[in-house]
From TrEMBL:
This is Lipoyl synthase. Its cofactor is [4Fe-4S] cluster. InterPro entries: Aldolase_TIM, Elp3/MiaA/NifB-like_rSAM, LIAS_N, Lipoyl_synth, rSAM, rSAM_sf. The gene is lipA. The keyword Iron-sulfur applies. [4Fe-4S] cluster 2 binds at residues 79, 83, 86. Binds 2 [4Fe-4S] clusters per subunit. One cluster is coordinated with 3 cysteines and an exchangeable S-adenosyl-L-methionine.
Length: 315
């Protein structure tokens, strides 16, 4: 299939920019059990922690909070980049790193009893190492209090600072995640401060530095890409030995963000899943509501099926 088959193409509608777009049935989420959601939020507020679930307006927040999971957002909620699809604040000035954050994060993981934790961050291009040292401190503190918890880090591209990447990998996270986000043709509009080839190089470097780690990337669709372009990106990711892929529908956070060009039918997501598994990905999670860290704990099943022994890091 060369062209994505959407429910309908949003860009062709003759509506004003402020008109509400009716989402298809498959993008509706169940109402969460707010008692459990409130409990998770209380823990986060008590410890002064941020989550990408809240900052990026994730549609799965209710489901994830209901089962006691969250993707922690470290180094503050203010980003140094202004990607027009993202709801994280870029207008605030980034603050100095908080030395107590790793301790507070570890306490939250312990209180919530997490078996798998995802740690991500805003882009901190203002820091010499892009925040790599803070990732390491967070990993080390979690391992002290919850040694059996598997750890996934969802990192920025670090501006191509591979020494900083090596610092993160020296803490031996179980999963190294970095989102490709979209196809090369749409990078200038969607990720103006990102570079497609730099993203691919990050995975090459990760495999060279820490061949034991599981690598993961994510794509969002509905921004005007074709299915052929998605398949080409998937092939590129396999060429750099990416293990896990997530594909989900882009949803416009507000009127000031990039608009949705198409709502993609679930059948197309299933086709991408099949294609990805045939390419050799160890795991492909592909559905309209899939997000990069949605059901991330399922990686533990993969780790049992495809075990890798940690190796001494290359110098």
């Amino acid at each position: 299939m060369d062209v994505v088959q959407p429910l309908f193409v949003i860009s062709q509608r003759s509506q004003s920019r402020k008109s509400m777009v009716v989402k298809p049935e498959w993008l509706r989420v169940k109402a969460p059990q707010w008692q459990r959601v409130g409990s998770v939020k209380e823990t986060l507020r008590d410890l002064g922690l941020n989550t990408v679930c809240e900052e990026a307006s994730c549609p799965n927040i209710g489901e994830c909070f209901n089962i006691g999971t969250a993707t922690f957002l470290i180094m503050g909620p203010a980003c140094t980049r202004a990607c027009p699809y993202c709801d994280i604040d870029f207008e605030k000035k980034p603050q100095p790193l908080d030395p107590t954050e790793p301790d507070r994060l570890a306490i939250a993981v312990q209180r919530l009893g997490l078996k798998h934790v995802v740690i991500t961050s805003v882009n901190r291009d203002d820091l010499p190492d892009g925040g790599a040292s803070q990732f390491v401190r967070c990993i080390e503190q979690i391992r002290q209090v919850m040694p059996q918890t598997t750890i996934e880090v969802l990192i920025p591209d670090l501006c191509g600072n591979w020494s900083a990447l090596a610092i993160i990998l020296s803490a031996r996270p179980d999963v190294l995640n970095h989102n490709t986000e979209t196809v090369p043709r749409l990078y200038k509009r969607t990720r103006p401060q990102g570079e497609y080839q730099r993203t691919l190089e990050l995975f090459r470097q990760t495999r060279a530095i820490a061949p034991w780690t599981y690598t993961k990337s994510g794509l969002m669709v509905g921004l005007g890409e074709t299915s052929a372009e998605i398949l080409e990106v998937m092939q590129d990711l396999r060429q750099v030995d990416c293990d896990i892929l997530t594909i989900g529908q882009y949803l416009q956070p507000s009127q000031k963000h990039l608009g949705v060009q198409a709502f993609i039918h679930p059948d197309q997501f299933e086709q991408w899943r099949i294609e990805g598994e045939n390419m050799g990905f160890l795991q492909v999670v592909s559905s309209p509501l899939t997000r990069s860290s949605y059901h991330a704990e399922q990686v533990q099943v993969l780790m049992k099926r495809f075990p890798r022994s940690p190796l001494v890091l290359n110098p």
